[in-house]
Specification:
2 helices; 8 strands; 2,3-Dihydroxybiphenyl 1,2-Dioxygenase, domain 1; 4-stranded mixed β-sheet
Length: about 140
Amino acid sequence: MEIPRFHLSICVADLAATRAFYEGLLGCSPGRTLPHAIDFSFFGHQLTCHLDPPRVRPADAATLNGNHFGVILPLDEFRRLAALLGEAKVRFLTPPHVQHEGTPGARWGMVVADPSGNAVELKAYGDEAQIFRPAGP
């Protein structure tokens, strides 16, 4: 059985800068491209970026409160992207870090702002069986 893919649609302020970020930095291949929108394969899922500057909801570290989306990556890919994004001077809302290091629940995470200020979370787990495990002591 195939795993279903999600579709996410977000507003952006500048399509050229958006393309440079998602395609150029994150390696997301573009699909359908219109004068007002671009579809990307966001790690196998469909991300549609609509040009609509007044509706962009830029996030910052203090006001993230769930206003983000992201992907769970293999740890080596997470580390590669963390280095690449750091070198590119991308704005980290939450810099790369590890939680619960040395435990079965170890997870790595970072949150970056795309050129419109949309918060994108990238994370990895040492043990992917922990992804849906309930939180607890």
